[in-house]
Design goal:
The structure holds two protein chains of two kinds.
Chain A (H helix, E strand, L loop, with lengths): L10 E6 L2 E8 L3 H9 L1 H7 L9 E6 L6 E6 L7 E11 L3 E5 L9 E9 L2 E9 L3 H14 L1 H17 L1
Helix pairs in contact in A: 1-2
Chain B lengths: L1 H10 L2 H12 L2 E2 H7 L4 H13 L3 E6 L2 E6 L1 H38 L3
Antiparallel strand pairs in B: 1-3, 2-3
The chains are: A alpha+beta, B alpha+beta.
Chain lengths: ~160, ~110
């Protein structure tokens, strides 16, 4: 617990049957952290998980209440997988709410809050699913696509880490 | 996935978490568990029943004694579920750390 200054620990909790909450503190002012979530050229630098072998093809974000976003992953546009939805609330620099519409009715609503802690920023991200089933399935879909690649990458990273 | 939901429900109760912890160190009979947690036999049977349904505990009756032990599968599924999510978010947030750090340095360079 000692050195939480530079990079906080990512805490992931299933708070209820419908809710997944991710918390982390960043050593930067709210203004800058909010910028990294709302400027596409910055957002695309960190959002695609590193172990995801599928590249991010495009990232369009119209960050204002009612505006839309669309992220496309894939090797090429024809075989792309799109994640899209709407910003339901944009309150700079403290709150973002967006819908996840790619899975239709089963889509979660994501709420992110940015809280100032003496110059640092506590980010709390909540995914609220319309049903238990939607939460479980959203997760299973994502994991099923990737576990082997994850493991291969893990092994590779361990090898690389050991040899550096 | 129903098993997973049952696991989360089972883990919501402090006594049941205590029972799992206890069984993590040694198998125990329902009577022993009831004594340990100062409960009636009926109360403990209920808790064990919930844990059993969630696949977190298995029980076996030998003679008049029902022995409880940890059921492996349930715990592993649930741990994997959270771990998968944690991994993705951690990767994102490690990268976000780098991005905000760069923004901070840039601001300092630009003399704000």
């Amino acid at each position: 617990m000692g050195d939480r200054k530079s990079s906080g620990r990512t805490v992931v909790e299933r708070r209820s049957e419908l809710e997944l909450v991710v918390t982390r503190t960043f050593d930067a002012p709210v203004r800058l952290v909010f910028e990294a979530w709302t400027k596409p050229e910055l957002f695309k630098l960190w959002w695609p998980p590193k172990s995801n072998p599928v590249p991010l093809l495009s990232c369009e974000m119209d960050v204002r209440t009612g505006g839309g976003y669309r992220l496309t992953f894939g090797q090429d546009a024809a075989n792309g997988m799109a994640f899209f939805g709407k910003y339901l609330e944009v309150t700079p620099p403290s709150r973002l709410v967006w819908s996840n519409d790619e899975s239709g009715e089963a889509g979660a609503v994501t709420t992110v809050t940015f809280e100032d802690l003496d110059g640092r920023t506590r980010v709390v991200l909540q995914e609220l699913y319309p049903s238990k089933q939607a939460l479980d399935e959203a997760f299973v879909g994502m994991e099923d696509a990737l576990p082997e690649q994850f493991e291969q990458l893990d092994a590779l990273l361990v090898t690389l880490g050991a040899s550096v | 996935m129903a098993l997973l939901d049952a696991s989360f429900a089972a883990l919501a109760d402090p006594t049941r978490r205590g029972v799992l912890e206890q069984l993590g160190s040694a198998d125990a009979s329902i009577t022993e568990l009831a004594d340990k947690f100062h409960m009636t036999l009926t109360g403990m049977k209920k808790h064990v029943g919930v844990l059993e349904q969630a696949g977190l505990v298995t029980t076996e009756k030998v003679g008049r004694v029902r022995t409880c032990r940890l059921g492996r599968r349930g715990l592993e599924d649930e741990a994997a579920w959270i771990e998968g999510r944690r991994r993705i978010w951690n990767e994102r947030f490690e990268a976000l750390d780098v991005v905000v750090e760069a923004l901070k340095r840039k601001e300092q360079r630009d003399g704000r």
